[in-house]
Each structure stands twice: as structure tokens, then as C-alpha cells.
Amino acid sequence: MRIGIFDPYLDDLGGGEKYMISIASCLSKKNDVVVFWDNPEDLKNVSERFSLDISRVKLAKNIFSSRYSFFGRLIKSSKFDIIVVLSDGSIPLVLSKKLFIHLQQPFPNLKMSLNLILKKLRVSSFFCNSLFTKSFIDKEFNISSSVVYPPVDSNLKKGNKENIILHVGRFRAQNVGYDYKKQEVMVDIFKKMVDDGLKNWKLIIAVGLKSEDEERFRRLQEKTKRYPIEFMVNLNNGDLHKIYSIAKIYWHASGYGEDLDKKPELAEHFGISTVEAMGAGVVPVVINLGGQREIVEDGKNGYLWNTKQELIKKTIELTKDNLKLKRMSDEAMNRSKIFSKDRFCKDIESIFFK
What we know:
The chain has helices at 15-27, 40-49, 70-77, 114-120, 131-141, 183-195, 214-222, 237-246, 272-279, 292-295, 308-320, 322-336, 341-352, and strands at 2-6, 32-36, 58-60, 82-86, 98-103, 125-128, 146-147, 164-171, 202-209, 229-233, 249-252, 283-287, 303-305. It is of the alpha/beta class. The protein has two domains: 2-148, Rossmann fold; 164-339, Glycogen Phosphorylase B (Rossmann fold), CATH 3.40.50.2000. Helix 9 crosses helix 12 (322-336). The longest helix has 15 residues, at 322-336.
């Protein structure tokens, strides 16, 4: 089959890009797969950042670009059996035999126009990255979507563990508001724990950082002086895996303090970094919001928390109980395996080829 993939954010190097190019990688083993994009460097960067095999994936002119004519897109798309699009809340008009729409996040301000309703009729299937996303998308689009959890590197090596609390996430200040991933919140909580007597533990925050956010990031760094807090910026996959391998506890706080009824997009829609950490035996202590609740079984392979006090209490408990930490670490590794790439490929094929 001839299959086309389009991700409007391909140069963003986020979880959505890993998801979409993983689809391309999976399907290219038995099909003719192209990615609609004009800059080959962006596709190369995604494949290198996430260690994805795109050796069989081809690049095609971006028929969804504003520089490409509407009728040209219709003609070109008609030559494809399947086109898969990561939606920004819109649905493109194409003439492929089948159209699949992937949604990574809620769109609370979506207005269901007549135009969108008519375009929706052309969609073979909608699929989301989590039950959390689905719970909003189904209402917003008036559909019943499928859930395919993202593929996660869950077979990471567990090294000699050190007293490290780890957080991994993009630092985003522009457009979405400062402290999108609540990294400043976690810094403040860790500083309080140190002030209250925590010794011989370090907080590492590994961030993806773009130039437009550097000034705000420097302000966050200024707040950590004289505390055992370390920032690692724009690590490649190999270096990131090394940090996972030696950390003991993983923190995540996206959505904390937000009104998620009005802005559900500010919660973690799934939580790829949480699963990656678990794959290396890092015990998650993550906020009880969004997709995190679908990953962590509270008290078995990690902890969920609702308040700062809970985060502190559950973290301190793990720092003092090596047996519990070891047991949860083993359970976390077992849990991570259900989010493997093999499972992802099978789930994708079951949707596209049923």
C-alpha cells in the first residue's frame, strides 16, 4: 500500500513527532511510506533524537503547505491508499482512499463548523494517545476514537543507582505560559526538602530547550544556586538513557495548580518520559492527573500525588526505605513493557488494516 504521513509540527522534536514518525517506521516494513515535509533535516533530526529507523521511509513535497495549491493537494493525495495526519484541531480535505486522524491533546476551544462536520465524514478513523485525551476529543468532535498508547523505549538498562531524583521534559515559556511543565514548582519543592533536612540527594532536570526560551530558563537556573540541583540541556538519546539508568526516583508535575476543566491541554496527555524512566527502574512519583494515571499503579510500581505535601511525603518515604524502593523499581520495569514499540506497531496495524 502507498501511505502518506503528515505532522505539522515535525520540526518541534516533541512526543507527537516521535509518535508520527514511529508510525512511518512501523508501516514502512511492508508498505511504501512517505512523509510530507520539505526540509529533510527535520526528519533526520527526529529519527536521530528518538533513535527511529526510517531507512525505508521516503520524503515527499509537503502537499499540506500553504505554498502547495489546493487542487494540487487533491490530485496528489488521490494517489495514496492511506493518509495519516496529526491534527492541530483541523481536518484536511484529501482524496486518499482512507484518511486517519491522530489527536495528541484536547482542543477545548474547538468550534464544530459545518465545514468541519463535512470533512469529518471523510475520516476512516480517529485515534488518540491516551484515555485522557480521548475523554475530551470524543466530546469535542462527537466521535468514538481509538486509543493507541505511544511507543516507548522500555528496555533501558538499569545501572548502579545513585541518590538522584530526575525530571525530563521540554522547557517551554513562549506561547504556553511560564513553567508549562511545572519545573519551577519542582525546584521549589526540592529546595524545601533540602532546607528541611534532606541530605545526600540531588535533583536533575533534563530539558529540551529552544533559543527563544533561554532567558526564562536562565532565571530558573538562578533560583537553584547553592542547592544540589543540576540542569542537563538538549541531551541525545544515549546520554538521556544514561541518566535514567542511574536515577532512583522520577518526578512529574504537569497540570499542577491548573484549571484542567478549562485548560485540559496543560496536563500531561500521556507521559512518555515517565514510562522511559520506569523502563530503567526509576520509581515514578508523579501527579495524579492526565495520562499519568494510566501509567502508574499507585503503591505498586510508583506513587501518584495530589498535593505538594503528598509529593514530599511519598518521596521521603522512598529515600528512607531501600527495600520498598527496590521492589517498586522492579515493578516499574515490568509495567513499562506494556508500552513497547512492538505493541504500538500491532495496535496501529489493527486500526489501519482491519
